[in-house]
Design goal:
The chain is mainly beta. It is built from one helix and 28 strands.
Length: 390
């Protein structure tokens, strides 16, 4: 066991898996990108491999497939409106040592992906007006000091205002951006982004809603999201509907699986299952979907495991995210374990998804307010094949 004290994780940017079993995250108070070696302390290496300065508050974090070239965008932090336009480019293996450069782009809450190749491309997903903005990573690193404004290499239009989620498939060099109108796609051709037809949220006879999260499943080469529908009033969140939306990248097959009402947000990918934590006044649960193992198979709900109530849980009539406790969920694509937190109680429940049973409850020295943030790592799990922070 190893502890890194006095750090303040940028929860929205999350953890980013890097090659070699490493993981990256951002300390939102110190303004540093941290590279962690989770298994290092077992063999005499420090947990903290490196730290480099980045602009904060960190909104999104992504890397090129090789893990050397990274980008960090900035968001609201503890502010009511977007105010920062800073983007940080990071080279963890520059000849002079790890190097970062900050430039000005556009005020907002941009998502980010970093496409690989000889000249990695940093692609920002903007709202209001919606667009994809591409920058050469090496041009970002070559920018002058003092945070100069830098125009993008290329722009592609997106629908306004409602972008919410990014994914990147390193195999095909495609990127995906979730919006109310569907999952918008673009592929890299040489130095250019080429737009493709978006993927609709409607599937399996179910329509309506929009995805509020998007991630790549590197085990099965699938996209996953949670599509939320129902009333727009946040106080009526117990009435929201939630479907697991999935798309197989190679076959093109798409579908939706009902998860139940309430608040469902992020998801976690295990070796044979995909896990969703659902919060509802009638009782919280961990929903385990059996993921396809062969071509033509479709996901289905394999188990629903009740979770102990949170003392500070959201209540009907109030928003499910202001001043209330939540749950974080994590898994590794190399193993069956799923971790889900009990916000405010300092507990993490460890579940064996293959047997649909809890195997341990971890008690932590902090309350895990707001649910905290979790990462679950298995040696050699290939999690770096999803090069976007989660």
């Amino acid at each position: 066991m190893a502890v890194l004290a006095g750090r303040h994780l940028a929860e929205h940017a999350g953890f980013l898996a890097l090659p070699g079993g490493l993981a990256a995250c951002v300390d939102d108070r110190a303004g540093e990108l941290l590279v962690l070696d989770p298994y290092g302390p077992d063999t005499g290496r420090p947990l903290l491999r490196a730290s480099v300065p980045v602009a904060v508050p960190a909104e999104h974090l992504a890397a090129a497939p090789g893990g050397r070239h990274l980008a960090v965008t900035t968001g609201l932090g503890r502010n009511e409106a977007a105010w920062s336009d800073l983007l940080t480019a990071v080279d963890l293996a520059a000849p002079e040592g790890a190097r970062t450069v900050r430039v000005r782009t556009r005020v907002g809450e941009p998502g980010v992906t970093v496409l690989g190749g000889e000249r990695p491309l940093v692609v920002l997903r903007h709202r209001e007006p919606g667009e994809l903005a591409a920058y050469h990573h090496d041009m970002l690193l070559a920018a002058a000091p003092a945070c100069p404004p830098l125009p993008p290499h290329q722009r592609l239009p997106l629908p306004d205002a409602d972008g919410h989620g990014d994914a990147h498939d390193p195999v095909t060099e495609r990127l995906f951006a979730a919006a109310g109108s569907g999952v918008h796609r673009a592929r890299r051709e040489d130095d250019t982004l080429v737009a493709e037809a978006p993927l609709p949220w409607a599937a399996d006879g179910r329509s309506g809603g929009r995805g509020y999260y998007l991630r790549l499943d590197p085990v099965r080469r699938m996209l996953w999201s949670c599509v939320r529908g129902g009333p727009g009033d946040p106080g009526r969140w117990p009435e929201w509907s939630n479907d697991a939306w999935w798309h197989q990248l190679d076959s093109g097959l798409t579908g939706r699986v009902p998860l139940g009402p309430g608040l469902v947000f992020r998801l976690a990918v295990a070796v044979r299952h995909v896990a969703f934590a659902r919060v509802h006044p009638d009782g919280d649960e961990l929903v385990l979907l059996a993921a396809p193992t062969g071509r033509g198979e479709r996901p289905y709900v394999a188990a629903r495991l009740p979770l102990p109530a949170m003392a500070g849980a959201p209540r009907p009539g109030g928003t499910p995210w202001d001043g209330v406790q939540r749950r974080a969920v994590a898994a590794s694509p190399g193993g069956p374990l799923v971790a889900v937190s009990r916000g405010g109680h300092g507990e993490v429940h460890l579940v064996d998804a293959d047997h649909a049973e809890e195997v341990a409850t971890l008690t932590l020295p902090t309350p895990m307010d707001d649910g905290g943030h979790l990462a679950l790592v298995t040696p050699g799990d290939g999690a770096e094949a999803d090069p976007v922070g989660r």
